[in-house]
Amino acid sequence: MAQIRIREGFENQILYVIPRPMLPRFSEHPLIHPLMPTDVGWYPEARFHYCERENGANEHILILCVRGSGWYDMNGERGTLHTNQALLIPRNTPHVYWASEATPWSIYWVHFTGSSADFFAHQLAEGEPTLAVDENAMSTLTHLFDECCKALMTGFLLERMIYASQTLHHLLGCLFFNNRAFSPTLQTSRFHNLDSTLAYLHHHVRKPLTLADMARHAALSLSHFSRLFKEQTGYSPMDYFIHLKVQHACQLLFLTSMTVREIGYELGYEDPAYFSRLFKKVVGISPTEYRNRPRGEIGERFERPARSWD
Hints:
With 310 residues, the chain is of the alpha+beta class. The chain has helices spanning 23-27, 117-121, 135-153, 158-177, 184-191, 195-203, 211-218, 222-233, 237-255, 260-266, 272-283, 287-292, and strands at residues 14-17, 36-43, 50-53, 60-67, 70-74, 77-81, 85-89, 95-99, 106-113, 130-132. The strands form two sheets. Strands 1-2-9-4-7-10 form a six-stranded antiparallel beta sheet. A four-stranded antiparallel beta sheet has the order 3-8-5-6, with no helix packed on it. Helix 3 packs antiparallel against helix 4 (158-177), helix 9 (237-255) packs across helix 11 (272-283) and helix 10 packs across helix 11 (272-283). The relative contact order is 0.09.
């Protein structure tokens, strides 16, 4: 460990600390209460950076390593933080962290609290405080960190704090739920991304595709395709496709004068009675009832597929 220790004061650094007497007023706002950044900063090439908190911090701490490397020690467990990794330190956890002298890190960091903060802070397994960040997620995260800093640049105004809070929510959501290097579901899609298959289903919504057609397009076996599809969308392939068809049928019922028979045929169903039964199973009412009801009174059983494609 380097003998020189610097906590802050690096060239071109950014540092914003919300005055503690202001925090209670901000935390009462409904848009800030769930997740409030209390400190945020950027330390580029922070040679000799060193920070020690014997009793931890009152807030959770997230450190994103953009370049270089460093070390951390939490509860007697030491580890390394590399480029394209993030370190999450739960509140009230004693810790030390410091930059490598040979390859000093460039890091974004934020302290945060709020009613949703614990949820995000416990996304990592106990004893595993770091996570990898893929290239796309890293680009988004650095942009959002910059946005947080810019939000506080003009002063600690309520509207800027609201924006910083919402930006932090987006940032943490990206880190844990849109990061292929971490999310278990997205990790699966690293080996086979189904985006093109979902687009294929959307663009062939009028055709009577079979499960074999879908698996063939994805170049996977039927069983492998079905498993991956369910993991990534929450639907079986055929259920997803049926929901797409019913969603399209709803649009045609509202926007055209086509008969139910014509709409069913348009979507690949030659038997209008079967199409009506299928529609009612998904939506909760028949196609005719759906067409005749005001939009605001349509039942809520119909759940649209997770993704929509142009």
